[in-house]
């Protein structure tokens, strides 16, 4: 007993039983339910629950009771459990599922109305194996199980021998079916996969998501088998088992002459409900009688009789001549409703008997007479197909109680045969489809010839059912779910001596099948061993600071019993360190990649198993492993669990540089004084004058000045970053926030690197631009800071040479006269400090930061600034008492940060394409007329470098290091010398991840939303001024297939009238679009996506009468007559006439209304169309312009003639210009269409609407044809994408 049990940690376990009953110990496994990758619990383990990955504290631990090693758990005959609070009667209790009457061991189903698999028997009791549903392959599983349960087919398949020298086993359909059948008969698994079979069909994974009709699959697969079995003993197997014959005849009613031919069939398609009838056939017998019922050919359908030599009345029909050994009946449950133009499923009840006497349907005389006509296979024309778009494999919903399987467990009955009259068939298989015409699920009910028992084969589940369950598949469901049954019958001779063939047992297998069984068993054993290895394998992330490849990442998979020494050897080979470092110079340490923290090393644990070292086998670990390397002369420093890692950056105030970090390990209980001593020893600095600044998070700098305060009290964590400075300068006497150190660190944390693409051709010569850039570059060399180390060494522009003779003469041209003040300021700043100016004469007001800037400041990682250093440290210090021993480089923090940072930026870039540039425009000048860029000068430094990608030589790139708190206006002014034009003459576009570009126009916004390596494109052209907006102009073509056509980009300004904007727009249209238009022949109107809206009148003023925004869009409409819109009280409606008698829509015509009156609209339409007012009906169009709708739907689908008096109420809601209204004459009746005409019109309408991008409600998605490829797969067109 556990002592002090109340003090022990407790865990809550929730166990899901996915087998069936109570079990014998050690015959089942307990596996983790929410982490299936973890190994099952070890029954023999002595570890406590807390050491076995159970989570205490009331957290739920989900477990599954599963098979052990692929074998079923053994059911205990009587299972007991005792509780001190129970009486003796209650002590014996069955742990398995309780039956309806709550008695132990009853096989009845649950009392719950929903379908449950609780009473499904184990495989050991049914003796049959299920098939795994790949996705939507239930139809395939049902057919394969039926063929497997057909002894004649199975035995014939076993007798066929595969010749590996003649064909690839992967593409051999008979061989893969043979393997599948052998596994179904011999495996110990509950269910097996069908992927090898579908692969032999030439299918890829996408085929698993296509559901097809089971009868269609049967036809196609039989054809494929016949092709594969040519010139073998099984060449005629399909015909011998499934082929029958019938006579198609026409008999003259005048002379009795009969013309006929013999056709063959593989199945008989039976109509459920005759075309046009409301009553379905009640039984298979009725449907068969209707199938052979002759029809009379009279009137215009008279038959030309060769004997009478004229057209005569005749009878045409079918007669059965011969029935196959296996008779297949296809019940045609799926039909097409021409009223709704949708496919439907017929759920009418149709019975089929257990024994079917076919003698009333056979032509005995014709069967006895010799057959002289050639036979043709009519299978193709008898073929019925059903394509379901969706599947539902879930049988636990309430609407599935009529699935036809109650799962009652009945004792096996003897198959009693009695003499039958010829020909009599016995039912042995029923294919069931549950669902609707839109989708559903197939399963098979099959009778075994071994014991006469019926079984339900429902994918991986096999269970016993009764004859009553078969009767439930007759149909008659009133709900949305129903059944589609294909019944398989087997023939029986009229004498008792003739019985169906018996299944081949393992002892009677042919030799090649016995060999196949042995190979499959070996494969299963190998799979079991591999699965066992997988269950005992630890999988953990592995990092390595490779001396050549820098930081690399992989996954280490090591058996739990492997020692740390063996795991290190595996990691050594995996990271390809042979020849770079010796194995003795490598070790595995515990590592936290997220915080870049070395948690601990494993000294003295080289022989410890990895399973114990890592805390067991888990699907994921909260830590990683790092393969650490050292130089031969170095020694590894031990990492203790209580230590923290600190990255120390040394700051040089004189050169204003920040060095690459060195790694120092400290303890949280150390004081600041002790910590300074530790840094002094590691960095070679003086501890007396040392200032230590901790960066806790982005832009949060704290000076550590209290000597006796501990690191924990100062906010140190597992991984930290500090800046240290130790000099004799007087900067330490100034308040920290006013010191040069603070300003340098502040700039360091806010500087970003941008890639700026300059325009291909700027005004002036390329030489001028190059000269200006070189001059500025030389002047900026004096302010070399650590920020320059964010990029690689700067390179000059390629292919831009400045002639010496032109340099002096053109130097004055590189900057415009009005920018000389800026140039002087840049030069002055470049010669001094590049930080924020502290000059008291600098009286420019500071810019306000936008909300987006504040938000984006927090999104930048505090470790990003580590990238500013370009060299690497080889010093790692744990304690000051390390002495003069040279230490190994435990972790190169720079490279790890670089690796993480690149990933972080990749993640950021993925979200760019969802961003939109801010709208609106600001002036570059404030209210006093001063440039906003002069308000505050922040750090800016640019260096030219050639673009990495294969762009043209003229397209050049600048690498710009800039303080992201700078405004766009100041940024543009700083770029002026490099672009060669004033900032008002070029535009700035931000480039997103998908190469989309959006113009940045808010000049008072900062660059805080930008991050390192963001791209910016500079384009020449007038930048927007205050109150200006860039506008996209589209032409509205109401009667064209594509009514929206882009014309030009233009600029509208606040206070401009519509007429003034048209005056500026028309010359652009003439020059760029070759449209010569007069100002009175065009109108502008609102554009909302593709919908035309409000008509803008000439006197309307932008921003006063018309709201306008950045990247605005408008329609330009060319008028065929003078403008009729004169007032905002008027309403412009687009109307279109529908003519039912011709099934056509007329062109759009505009109607101008003076009010929102329905009567006025009808009067205008009546006047325009000459339809009497009392006969005129109208309806509002639906969807986006042009509100396209099929001519087959418009007459009944729209809401015609709404009972309203005004247009601005429900259901019309016509309150703005541009609404679409259809109208018609009520006296016109729709054109009568034949089935062929309707089908042809449907195709045309579908094509038309698809071209315009409108939905076709009556047309489902295109169904993929079912194909089986005999040569391993379809031949793909190399020209296809």
Outline the biggest β-sheet. 10 strands, mixed
**Number of helical elements:** 27
- Rg of Cα set: 42 Å
Question: For the residues shown, what is the average pLDDT?
Answer: 74
This entry's quaternary arrangement is single chain
EC number: 3.4.19.12
GO biological process, one term: protein deubiquitination
Organism: Cyclopterus lumpus
Biased composition (Low complexity): 777-794, 829-838, 859-875
Give a brief outline of the structure:
With 1281 residues, this protein is α+β, with helices and mostly antiparallel strands.
Description:
The protein is 22% helix and 24% strand. With 1281 residues, it is α+β, with helices and mostly antiparallel strands. The strands form 11 sheets. Strands 8, 13, 16, 18, 19, 20, 21, 22, 23 and 24 form a 10-stranded mixed β-sheet that branches. The longest helix is centred in the middle third of the chain and has 25 residues, at 511-535. The radius of gyration is 42 Å and the shape is flat. The two termini are 70 Å apart. The relative contact order is 0.06. It catalyses: Thiol-dependent hydrolysis of ester, thioester, amide, peptide and isopeptide bonds formed by the C-terminal Gly of ubiquitin (a 76-residue protein attached to proteins as an intracellular targeting signal). Residues 913-926 have a biased composition (Acidic residues). Residues 129-487 form the USP domain. Keywords: Hydrolase, Protease, Thiol protease, Ubl conjugation pathway.
Layout of helices and strands:
Blueprint: E1 12-17, E2 28-32, E3 60-67, H1 88-91, H2 123-126, E4 130-131, H3 138-148, H4 151-159, H5 173-186, E5 191-192, H6 195-200, H7 214-228, H8 237-242, E6 244-252, E7 258-265, E8 268-271, H9 284-292, E9 295-297, E10 303-305, E11 310-312, E12 314-322, E13 326-332, E14 334-337, E15 342-345, E16 355-357, H10 364-368, E17 375-377, H11 379-382, E18 390-391, E19 424-436, E20 439-447, E21 454-458, E22 461-465, H12 467-471, E23 482-483, E24 486-492, H13 511-535, E25 537-546, E26 550-559, H14 564-574, E27 586-592, E28 597-601, H15 610-613, E29 624-629, E30 643-652, E31 657-658, E32 662-667, H16 672-683, E33 690-697, E34 700-704, E35 719-726, H17 740-750, E36 751-757, H18 766-780, H19 804-810, H20 820-831, H21 851-859, E37 876-877, H22 893-910, E38 940-945, E39 957-963, H23 968-979, E40 986-991, E41 997-1000, E42 1014-1020, E43 1028-1036, E44 1044-1053, H24 1058-1073, E45 1082-1088, E46 1091-1096, E47 1112-1118, E48 1131-1139, E49 1144-1145, E50 1149-1153, H25 1158-1169, E51 1176-1180, H26 1194-1197, E52 1220-1225, H27 1235-1251
Parallel strand pairs: 1-3, 4-5, 7-17, 8-13, 18-20, 25-29, 30-35, 32-37, 36-42, 43-47, 48-52
Antiparallel strand pairs: 2-3, 6-7, 6-12, 9-12, 10-11, 13-24, 14-15, 16-19, 19-20, 19-23, 19-24, 20-21, 21-22, 25-26, 27-28, 27-29, 30-31, 30-32, 33-34, 33-35, 36-39, 38-39, 40-41, 40-42, 43-44, 45-46, 45-47, 48-49, 48-50, 51-52
Helix pairs in contact: 5-13
């Amino acid at each position: 007993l556990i002592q002090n049990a109340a003090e022990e940690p407790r865990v809550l376990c929730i166990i899901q039983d996915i087998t069936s009953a109570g079990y014998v110990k050690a015959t089942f496994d307990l596996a983790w339910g929410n982490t299936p990758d973890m190994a099952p619990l070890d029954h023999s383990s002595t570890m406590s629950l807390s050491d076995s990955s159970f989570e205490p504290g009331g957290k739920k631990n989900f477990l599954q009771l599963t098979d052990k090693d692929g074998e079923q758990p053994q059911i205990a005959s009587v299972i007991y459990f005792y509780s001190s609070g129970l009486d003796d009667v209650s002590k014996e209790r069955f742990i398995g599922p309780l039956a309806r009457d709550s008695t132990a061991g009853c096989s009845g189903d649950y009392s719950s109305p929903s379908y449950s698999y609780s009473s499904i028997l184990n495989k050991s009791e049914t003796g049959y194996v299920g098939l795994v549903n790949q996705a939507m392959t239930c139809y395939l599983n049902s057919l394969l199980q039926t063929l497997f349960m057909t002894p004649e087919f199975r035995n014939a398949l076993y007798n066929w021998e595969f010749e590996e020298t003649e064909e690839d086993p992967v593409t051999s359909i008979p061989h893969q079916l043979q393997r599948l059948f052998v596994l179904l008969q011999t495996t110990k698994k509950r269910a097996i996969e069908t992927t090898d079979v579908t692969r032999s069909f030439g299918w890829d994974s996408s085929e698993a998501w296509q559901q097809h009709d089971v009868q269609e699959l049967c036809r196609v697969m039989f054809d494929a088998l016949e092709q594969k079995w040519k010139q073998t003993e099984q060449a005629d197997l399909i015909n011998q088992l499934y082929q029958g014959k019938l006579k198609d005849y026409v008999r003259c009613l005048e002379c009795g002459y009969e013309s006929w031919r013999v056709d063959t069939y593989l199945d008989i398609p039976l109509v459920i409900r005759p075309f046009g009838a409301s009553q379905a056939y009640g039984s298979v017998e009725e449907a068969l009688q209707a199938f052979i019922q002759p029809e009379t050919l009279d009137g215009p359908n008279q038959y030309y009789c060769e004997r009478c030599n004229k057209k005569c009345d005749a009878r045409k029909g079918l007669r059965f001549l011969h029935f196959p050994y296996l008779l297949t009946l296809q019940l045609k449950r799926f039909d097409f409703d021409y009223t709704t133009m949708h496919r439907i499923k017929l759920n009418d009840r149709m019975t089929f008997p257990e024994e079917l006497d076919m003698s009333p349907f056979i032509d005995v005389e014709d069967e006895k007479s010799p057959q002289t006509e050639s036979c043709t296979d009519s299978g193709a024309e008898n073929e019925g197909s059903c394509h379901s778009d969706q599947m539902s494999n879930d049988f636990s919903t309430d609407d599935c109680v009529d699935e036809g399987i109650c799962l009652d467990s009945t004792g096996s009955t003897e198959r009693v045969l009695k003499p039958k009259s010829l020909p009599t068939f016995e039912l042995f298989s029923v294919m069931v489809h549950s669902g609707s015409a839109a989708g559903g699920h197939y399963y098979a009910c099959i009778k075994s010839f071994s014991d006469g028992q019926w079984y339900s084969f429902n994918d991986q589940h096999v269970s016993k059912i009764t004859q009553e369950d078969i009767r439930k598949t007759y149909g008659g469901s009133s709900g949305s779910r129903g059944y589609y049954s294909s019944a398989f019958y087997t023939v029986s001779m009229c004498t008792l001596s003739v019985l169906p063939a018996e299944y081949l047992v393992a002892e009677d297998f042919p030799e090649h099948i016995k060999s196949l069984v042995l190979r499959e068993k070996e494969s299963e054993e190998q799979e079991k061993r591999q699965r066992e290895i997988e269950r005992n394998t630890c999988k953990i992330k592995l990092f390595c600071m490779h001396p050549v490849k820098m930081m690399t990442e992989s996954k280490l998979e090591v058996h739990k019993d492997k020692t740390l020494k063996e795991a290190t050897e595996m990691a050594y080979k995996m990271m390809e360190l042979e020849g770079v470092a010796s194995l003795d110079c490598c070790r595995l340490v515990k590592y936290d990649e997220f915080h870049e923290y070395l948690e601990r090393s494993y000294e003295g644990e080289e022989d410890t198993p990895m399973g114990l070292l890592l805390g067991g086998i888990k699907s994921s670990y909260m830590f990683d492993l790092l393969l650490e390397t050292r130089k031969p002369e170095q020694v590894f420093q031990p990492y203790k669990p209580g230590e923290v890692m600190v990255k120390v950056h040394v700051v040089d105030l004189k050169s204003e540089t920040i060095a690459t970090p060195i790694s120092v390990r400290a303890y949280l209980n150390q004081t600041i004084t002790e910590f300074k001593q530790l840094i002094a020893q590691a960095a070679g600095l003086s501890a007396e004058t040392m200032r230590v600044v901790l960066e806790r998070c982005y832009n949060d700098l704290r000076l550590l000045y209290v000597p006796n305060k501990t690191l924990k009290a100062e906010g140190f964590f597992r991984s930290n970053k500090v800046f240290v400075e130790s000099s004799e300068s007087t900067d330490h006497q100034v308040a920290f926030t006013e010191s040069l150190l603070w300003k340098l660190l502040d700039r360091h944390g806010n500087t970003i690197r941008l890639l700026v693409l300059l325009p291909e051709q700027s005004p002036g010569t390329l030489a001028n631009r190059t000269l200006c850039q070189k001059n500025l570059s030389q002047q900026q060399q004096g302010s070399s800071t650590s920020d320059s180390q964010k990029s690689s060494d700067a390179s000059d522009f390629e292919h831009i040479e400045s002639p010496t003779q032109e340099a002096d003469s053109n130097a004055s041209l590189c900057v415009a006269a009005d920018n000389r003040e800026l140039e002087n300021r840049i030069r002055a700043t470049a010669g001094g400090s590049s930080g924020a100016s502290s000059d008291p004469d600098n009286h420019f007001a500071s810019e306000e930061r936008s909300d987006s800037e504040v938000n984006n400041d927090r999104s930048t990682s505090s470790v990003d600034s580590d990238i500013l250093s370009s060299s690497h440290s080889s010093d790692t210090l744990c304690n000051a008492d390390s002495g003069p021993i040279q230490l190994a480089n435990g972790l190169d923090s720079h490279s790890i940060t670089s690796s993480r940072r690149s990933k972080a930026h990749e993640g950021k870039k993925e979200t760019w394409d969802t961003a939109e540039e801010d709208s609106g425009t600001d002036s570059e000048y404030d209210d006093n007329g001063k440039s906003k860029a002069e308000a505050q000068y922040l750090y800016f430094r640019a260096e030219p470098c050639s673009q990495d990608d294969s762009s043209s030589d003229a397209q050049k790139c600048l690498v710009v290091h800039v303080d992201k708190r700078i405004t766009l206006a100041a940024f543009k002014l700083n770029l002026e010398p490099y672009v060669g034009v004033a900032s008002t003459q070029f535009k700035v576009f931000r480039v997103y991840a998908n190469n989309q570009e959006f113009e940045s126009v808010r000049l008072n916004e900062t660059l805080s939303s930008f991050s390192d390596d963001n791209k910016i494109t500079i384009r020449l052209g007038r930048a927007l001024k205050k109150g200006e907006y860039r506008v996209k102009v589209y032409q509205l073509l109401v009667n064209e297939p594509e009514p929206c056509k882009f014309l030009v980009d233009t600029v509208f300004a606040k206070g401009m009238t519509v007429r003034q904007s048209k005056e500026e727009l028309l010359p652009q249209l003439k020059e760029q679009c070759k449209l010569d238009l007069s100002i009175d022949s065009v109108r502008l109107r609102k554009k909302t996506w593709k919908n035309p809206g409000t008509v803008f009148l000439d006197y309307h003023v932008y921003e006063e009468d018309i709201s306008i925004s950045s990247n605005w869009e408008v329609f330009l409409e060319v008028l065929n007559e003078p403008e009729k819109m004169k007032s905002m009280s008027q309403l412009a409606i687009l109307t279109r006439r529908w003519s039912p008698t011709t099934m056509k829509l007329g062109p759009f015509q505009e109607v101008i209304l003076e009010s929102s009156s329905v009567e006025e609209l009808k009067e205008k339409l009546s006047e325009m169309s000459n339809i009497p007012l009392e006969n005129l009906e109208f309806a509002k169009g639906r969807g986006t312009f042009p509100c396209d709708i099929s001519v087959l739907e418009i007459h009944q689908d729209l809401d015609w003639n709404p009972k309203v008096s005004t247009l601005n109420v429900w259901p019309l809601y016509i309150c703005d210009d541009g609404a679409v209204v259809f109208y018609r004459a009520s006296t016109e009746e729709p054109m009568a269409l034949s089935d062929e005409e309707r089908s042809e019109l449907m195709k045309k309408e579908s094509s038309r609407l698809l071209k315009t991008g409108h939905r076709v409600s009556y047309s489902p998605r295109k169904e993929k044809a079912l194909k089986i490829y005999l040569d391993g797969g379809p031949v793909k067109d190399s020209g296809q994408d």
